[in-house]
Write a structure and sequence with these properties.
By secondary structure, the protein is of the alpha/beta class. Helix content is about 40%, strand content about 20%. The chain is built from eight helices and ten strands. The strands form two sheets. Strands 3-2-1-4-5 form a five-stranded mixed beta sheet. Strands 8-7-6-9-10 form a five-stranded mixed beta sheet, sandwiched between helices.
């Protein structure tokens, strides 16, 4: 049995997946990214190979790097854009999904998927961290909560307190002021989620979303954001059976499997 790997080195987290020849996930891991992307990739690959019962990444028939630090994945046979890898990862998880909003640590992307899992169209917001994973980490700090706690805070809010600042730094300052004034924390959180959902509107349109969309990246686990997107965009958010944070690594591993199998049969 041959094995194939995908390593997604993100700005906040590094994810790695190993697939077998049939496309089954043999092992996966998610670690906090280090300052050095090569160190992040090495640690993730060491961990995922150990889980799969392999000596190291040299035992893989093919390895593809993707993400923010894709050029720094040791022993990778090649690297592919995270946009392409997220599209492929979602496609093999649920072929019916044709539109993605990928919310990473530092950017937001809207991706339209073609029938074969390739990218049909995409849009990207990488000029500002507002609405990204870093933004949510800052908001959680303002509430003195963990990210999972914050993601559920807005679910039962009766009202929404609008957050007007577009910049992460100013938004954090605005939120701290509102909390200090004793405003209901769930209603402030609802305002944050609605603000991010509105920022996703253009991305969803670029992705060609008509009636449904799926979320990838760590922020896809934010229940409050999913609720806000369904409310603002009037789109059903499709839940993925595989961890949405792993979609980039999964797509990279699938590309590795396809290329490795083709190379073997050539």
């Amino acid at each position: 049995m041959k094995y194939f790997g995908g390593c997604d080195v993100g700005s906040t987290y590094t994810k790695a997946i190993i697939l077998d020849e049939t496309g089954k996930i043999v092992a996966d891991t998610t670690i906090r990214s280090k300052i050095n992307s090569e160190v992040s990739a090495t640690l993730a690959m060491e961990e995922v190979c150990k889980t799969a019962g392999l000596k190291d990444s040299k035992d893989l028939a093919y390895l593809i790097g993707t993400g923010y630090g894709r050029n720094k994945v040791p022993f990778a046979d090649e690297n592919i854009s995270e946009i392409s890898c997220h599209a492929m990862g979602v496609h093999i998880t649920n072929p019916d999904v044709k539109a993605i909003i990928d919310i990473g640590g530092q950017d937001v992307k809207g991706i339209s998927i073609d029938t074969d899992g390739t990218v049909k169209n995409f849009a990207m917001n990488d000029k500002c961290a507002a609405g990204t994973g870093r933004f949510y980490e800052a908001m959680a700090r303002s509430f003195e909560m963990s990210l999972p706690e914050f993601s559920k805070l807005s679910l039962n809010a009766k009202n929404v307190i609008p957050i007007t600042a577009q910049c992460t730094v100013f938004a954090e300052s605005e939120v701290i002021t509102l909390v200090g004034e004793g405003k209901p924390m769930d209603e402030i959180a609802a305002g944050i989620q609605m603000a991010v959902a509105k920022r996703c509107f253009v991305m969803a349109k670029k992705a060609g979303a008509v009636d449904s969309i799926t979320l990838t990246g760590g922020c896809a686990k934010n229940d409050g954001l999913k609720q806000a997107i369904e409310h603002v965009l009037k789109l059903k958010v499709v839940e993925l059976k595989t961890d949405p944070q792993l979609m980039g690594a999964l797509g990279a591993a699938e590309y590795a499997r396809q290329k490795g199998m083709a190379k073997q049969s050539a």
